[in-house]
Design brief:
Elements: H1 4-12, E1 18-24, E2 27-34, H2 39-48, H3 54-65, H4 80-86, H5 89-101, H6 108-116
Antiparallel strand pairs: 1-2
Length: 117
């Protein structure tokens, strides 16, 4: 029987890569890639976001996790102020929402079925 830890790592592990196309008028401007958020990363991001504001957490999440197709970070910590002041909030929220909701397509029921097999 397969161990639960192995099933979790194979089904929901950090090796997965998600992506989101940032579009304007139907044209893809660029694609954001990221790996799933871990508990350790969430704790680190919460500390860096300096308060309990969900918007600050989501912005820090995007800055830390957003990658290009080669796996390099596309935002640096110093981009925070510019992103806050110079980019439409709705565009940032679309990226952040995609990152937060990533992995929810494979639901708990599918994971339970894997455990039974």
């Amino acid at each position: 029987m397969t161990r639960a830890i192995d099933l979790l790592k194979n089904s929901f592990g950090v090796s997965q890569l998600y992506q989101y196309d940032v579009k304007k008028e139907g044209k893809t401007i660029f694609t954001v890639y990221w790996h799933p958020l871990t508990i350790a990363e969430r704790e680190s991001i919460q500390k860096k976001s300096m308060n309990e504001d969900a918007n600050e957490f989501a912005l820090q999440l995007m800055i830390e996790k957003a990658l290009d197709k080669d796996g390099a970070r596309i935002f640096q910590d110093g981009d925070r102020a510019s992103l806050r002041r110079e980019v439409e909030a709705s565009v940032l929220q679309e990226i952040q929402l995609a990152m937060i909701e990533a992995g929810q397509s494979k639901g708990v029921e599918e994971a339970k079925a894997d455990l039974k097999s």
